[in-house]
Amino acid sequence: MRLIIHNASVLNDEGQLEIKTITAEDGVIKQIAAMDSVPDAGAFGEDTRVIDAAGKLVTPGFIDMHVHLREPGFEHKETIETGSRSAAKGGYTTIACMPNTKPVTDSPEIVSLVLEKAQEAGLVNVLPYAAITKNEQGRELTDFAALKAAGAIGFTDDGVGVQTAQTMKDAMALAASLGMTIIAHCEDNSLVEGAPVAEGEFAKRHGLKGIPNESEAIHVGRDILLAEATGVHYHVCHVSTEQSIRLIRQAKEIGINVTTEVCPHHLLLSEEDIPGLDANWKMNPPLRSKRDVEACIQALEDGTIDMVVTDHAPHSAEEKARGMQLAPFGIVGFETAFPLLYTKFVASGRWSLDMLVKRMTADPARVFGLSAGRLEAGAPADLTIVDLEKEKEVNPEEFASKGRNTPFGGWKLKGWPVTTIVAGKVIWSE
Ligand SMILES: NC(=O)N[C@@H](CC(=O)O)C(=O)O
Ligand SMILES: [Zn+2]
Ligand SMILES: [Zn+2]
Q1: Quick check: CB of 270 below 6 Å from ligand 1?
Q2: Which of 92, 149, 299, 376 could form a disulfide with 304 if both were Cys (CB 3.0 to 4.6 A apart)?
Q3: CA 314 to chain centre
Q4: Strands (E), 112-186
């Protein structure tokens, strides 16, 4: 199997675009070179596909280290197949899925099941996380060694914070001894108790209880101290507050092994933007203040925040119709992430295209030690072709995801992925 992508606009080491021809063989990039004439597929033998990418950007496939695929147990929200297709449509080629399934991914059997289903879907690379504690109940640690052996790439109780410091410390010490990462949903339940949105004007206006910033930052601070004590690689999920960012920045400065991620919605929306009691604006962490949004943007720019993730969290329309107080937290993310960030930050002139692409490819690959995420000979032929000029309105009805729960419906965006390639094979194309 050979793939040739001709006329590809690729970002070079200086972050500038140049036109190249990318050749891949047996799932691996062979060559990236300047070529004058359109290669003739016939000249390479029958098993060759040539794509003319004239006028389009070709990047390493996007990597999303925080997603919810819902299978097993919540197939009415999403399956590994529909989630993988949604990811492919958003330009993602590698995704790491959270263990808050039913049953929770806390046994080697469920890790294997997720890997099998992903294999059957045959689309993107799916990397499973396993739970830190049994059934994500925050009490008894799972069997980290067995879960690692089954293919888990890290440990997290995402969906809920690990409430007890001793449990987190034990988890970190064990993960460190196995060379594994602890990925933490940071939330102190005692400060949250049933609040559906962030503290702020919106909560006040609608008489809702507010989630304070400290509920996140207290866990971040606690865990940084525990990471220092245990030496583990500690990764903070969906960071959303100025205070957490301050703590992470200081920890990085003194050499503690901490990394973090941010979601597009926390870079683009504040609690002031919530139009009304529509649960498509309800997610965890909640939309916070404008100050927090600006802190997230600046931290992604200076590298304090390492990467962008979607926290793709599909729920059914029926579940989201239960109203702001009762509906589950979460919004879908795969199919809008790149166009949102490209339109709002790159086309507007605040970020370079190179920075955005790195935060969605090379940076997550570096943090999690993945071989993907770079355009060079020997790397996996996981590639995304993007039409930066293409302009389109977000239409949730067209999502490949089962989830329609997005606050971005109707937004007019530029920079849509048009072809996604995994291991040299086109897995999605417009
Ligand atoms: N982010 C969310 O709002 N929801 C996630 C859980 C989580 O990421 O904490 C979910 O599983 O629905
Ligand atoms: Zn979470
Ligand atoms: Zn999540």
Answers
A1: no
A2: 299
A3: 13
A4: 125-128, 181-184
Strand segments, DSSP code E, in 304-422 are: 307-308, 383-393, 412-422
**Ligand 1 pocket test target in 283, 287, 332 with most atoms within 8 Å of CB:** 283
Domain contains 374: no
Pairing of strands 197-198, 181-184: unpaired
Residue 7 CB-half CA count within 13 A: 11
Per-residue pLDDT tens for 56-92?
999 999 999 999 999 999 999 999 999 999 999 999 9
Residues of 67-81 as b/e, b for ≥16 C-beta within 10 angstroms?
A: bbbbbbebbebbbbb
CA distance linking residue 88 with residue 36, whole number of Å: 30
In this structure, what are the phi and psi dihedrals at residue 94, rounded to the nearest 5 degrees? -135, 130
Asked if residue 250 and residue 355 are part of one domain, the reply reads: yes
Flag residues of the chain having pLDDT under 70: 38-43
The answer to whether 100 is a known ligand-binding residue is yes
Is the CB–ligand 1 distance for residue 44 below 6 Å? no
Distance separating alpha carbons of residues 154 and 233, to the nearest angstrom: 10
For ligand 1, atom 2, which residue shows the shortest CA distance? Answer: 330
CA-68 nearest atom, ligand 1: 11
66 is annotated as contributing to ligand binding: yes
Beta pairing, strands 17-25 & 2-11: antiparallel
Angular region, 62: left φ>0, alpha ψ -120 to 50, beta rest: beta
Where in the sequence numbering do the catalytic residues fall? 311
Give this complex's ipTM. Answer: 0.99
Q: What is the pLDDT of residues 17-29, one digit of tens each?
A: 999 999 999 999 9
- Measured in Å, residue 134 CA sits from the centre of ligand 1 at 18
Burial degree of 374 (CB within 10 A; 0-12, 13-18, 19+): middle
What total number of domains does the chain contain? 2
CB of 313 within 6 A of ligand 1: the answer is yes
Same domain, 301 and 390: no
Q: What is the DSSP letter of 44?
A: G
Strand, coil or helix: 266? helix
pLDDT of residue 38: 67
Atom number in ligand 1 closest to CA 331: 3
At position 374, the amino acid (one-letter code) is R
Determine, yes or no, domain membership for 133.
yes
Q: Whose CA is nearest to atom 6 of ligand 1?
A: 159
- Please tell me whether the overall predicted TM-score, pTM, comes out greater than 0.90 for this model: yes
pLDDT at 1: 87
Which pLDDT value is given to residue 66? 99
Let me know whether 240 and 320 are in one domain: yes
The Cβ-side half-sphere exposure at 292, using a 13 Å CA radius, reads: 27
List the CATH number of the domain containing 420: 2.30.40.10
